[in-house]
């Protein structure tokens, strides 16, 4: 059988993971990235056990774990700093076989890119037109035209490919709150454990990165496009500067120009992730809120599942339909769960926030972890046969 080819639009985590998965199965891959280089300006990222299993399938779990920090323990606190719930990593490992690993997004992206031949990466290749004709998908971009057996659209929430081939797909919708992300300078005494602190219509979380740095994130319920009164760092100090320790010290350790802010959007699921020999993947298919820390984790799952469905399958459209049947129900379920958690975390009415905090305090850790089994217990299919079998389970 001649070597099959895949064009992947989007050089983020999902796109590069897909390229690695297919490359290791003997495909010729080409990754088109509109930016001038393959890099990531984001902050931290959480990789849960399901994501680490996907990275195992790519042969990269060990590399990525070495780049990150294992969160020893963490949990949720109320607006006065009192613990509402806690999770021990040892119990997470016992139940799911892997810990929670936190690293900088740029480090994960670099590990994925380095697993590919450099000549397979095409930076500065903004897509201008897409079609799927009788001879295969065709992508026109700034560096020419690419034709392949399969086109993977991993180009994010505002996917060019999705808009071209799924013109009736629903548009992204605002989740109701904005988010800030940042990384501190190295701290002499970083917090011993991570936490998410729930306020009223606001949240602030932090977790450890390697080298004594902390990854911090915050949310606030605001209309979309609301501008800060001054700099984003000053806005964070105004909102969270008097919150319980160690939040003020963490904000003081964040460079004033190093705060990223984004309004949060989610993508209502299209009727299918597949159009002929074109597949949507990652945020282009199922952008979700970050409340479960599953956005990148689900993209990694997508990548190894898609490669397993395509591996050795003589009928490419049928293989892509199997991918759709496997991934669309699962990602829709995870996205809904993440949205519900966001709604709970953003409660602003004092009686509702109090009831939420009491419920969290009364819920045993074992119950919380057991409820996460459907998300964290995922295992990757080994090949097209097991992918099809798992579809029926």
How would you describe what is shown here?
There is one protein chain. The protein is an alpha/beta fold and 393 residues long. Helix content is 37%, strand content 25%. Strands 6-5-14-15-16-13-17 form a 7-stranded mixed sheet, sandwiched between helices. A 6-stranded mixed sheet has the order 8-2-1-12-19-18. A hairpin with a 2-residue loop joins β10 (136-141) and β11. α1 packs parallel to α5 (105-113), α1 (13-23) runs parallel beside α10 and α11 packs across α15 (384-391).
Radius of gyration: 21 Å
Within CATH, the superfamily of the domain at 5-72 and 99-172 and 268-344 and 365-391 carries the name FAD/NAD(P)-binding domain
Query: Biggest sheet: strands side by side, in what order?
Result: 6-5-14-15-16-13-17
Strand proportion, as a percent range, falls in 15-25%
Count of individual beta strands:
19
Tertiary shape: globular
Fold-level CATH name of the domain at 5-72 and 99-172 and 268-344 and 365-391: FAD/NAD(P)-binding domain
Find the structural class using helix and strand composition: alpha/beta
So what's the CATH class of the domain at 5-72 and 99-172 and 268-344 and 365-391?
Answer: Alpha Beta
Uncertain segments are: none
Q: What's the CATH architecture name of the domain at 5-72 and 99-172 and 268-344 and 365-391?
A: 3-Layer(bba) Sandwich
Overall pLDDT, averaged?
A: 94
Topology:
Elements lengths: L4 E5 L3 H11 L4 E6 L10 E4 L1 H9 L3 H7 L1 E2 L2 E5 L5 E6 H8 L4 E4 H9 L7 E3 L3 E7 L2 E6 L2 E4 L2 E4 L6 H6 L7 E11 L11 E4 L3 E7 L5 E7 L11 H9 L6 H6 L7 E7 L7 E2 L2 E3 L2 H4 L8 H16 L5 H30 L4 H13 L2 H7 L1 H4 L7 H8 L2
Parallel strand pairs: 1-2, 1-12, 2-8, 5-14, 12-19
Antiparallel strand pairs: 3-7, 4-7, 5-6, 9-10, 10-11, 13-16, 13-17, 14-15, 15-16, 18-19
Helix pairs in contact: 1-5, 1-10, 2-10, 10-11, 10-15, 11-15
């Amino acid at each position: 059988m001649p070597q099959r080819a895949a064009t992947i639009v989007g050089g983020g985590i999902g796109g590069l993971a897909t390229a690695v998965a297919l490359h290791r199965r003997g495909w010729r891959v080409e990754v088109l990235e509109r930016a001038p280089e393959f890099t990531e300006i984001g902050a931290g990222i959480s990789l849960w056990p399901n994501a680490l299993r996907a990275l195992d399938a790519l042969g990269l779990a060990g590399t990525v774990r070495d780049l990150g920090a294992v969160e020893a323990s963490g949990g949720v606190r109320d607006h006065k700093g009192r613990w509402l719930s806690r999770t021990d990593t040892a119990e997470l490992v016992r139940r799911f076989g892997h810990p929670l690993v936190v690293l900088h997004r740029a480090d994960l992206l670099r590990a994925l890119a380095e697993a590919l031949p450099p000549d397979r990466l095409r930076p500065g290749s903004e897509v201008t037109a897409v079609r799927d004709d009788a001879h295969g998908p065709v992508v026109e971009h700034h560096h020419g035209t690419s034709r392949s057996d399969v086109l993977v659209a991993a180009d994010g929430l505002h996917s060019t490919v999705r808009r071209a081939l799924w013109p009736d797909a629903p548009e992204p919708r605002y989740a109701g709150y904005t988010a800030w992300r940042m990384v501190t300078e190295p701290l002499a005494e970083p917090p011993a454990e991570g936490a998410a602190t729930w306020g009223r219509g606001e949240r602030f979380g932090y977790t450890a990165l390697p080298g004594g740095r902390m990854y911090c994130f915050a949310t606030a319920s605001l209309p979309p496009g609301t501008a800060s009164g001054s700099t984003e760092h000053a806005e964070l100090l105004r909102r969270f500067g008097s919150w319980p320790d160690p939040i003020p010290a963490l904000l003081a350790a964040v460079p004033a120009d190093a705060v990223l802010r984004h309004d949060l959007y989610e993508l209502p699921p299209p009727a299918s992730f597949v159009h002929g020999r074109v597949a949507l993947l990652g945020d282009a298919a199922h952008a979700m809120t970050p409340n479960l820390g599953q956005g990148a984790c689900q993209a990694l799952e997508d990548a190894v599942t898609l490669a397993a469905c395509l591996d050795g399958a003589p009928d490419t459209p049928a293989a892509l339909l199997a991918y759709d049947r496997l991934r669309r129900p699962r990602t829709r379920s995870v996205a809904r769960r993440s949205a519900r958690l966001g709604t709970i975390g953003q409660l602003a009415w004092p009686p509702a926030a109090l009831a939420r905090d009491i419920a969290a305090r009364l819920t045993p850790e074992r119950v919380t972890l057991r409820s996460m089994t459907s998300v964290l217990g995922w295992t990757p299919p080994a090949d097209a046969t097991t992918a099809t079998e798992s579809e029926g389970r």
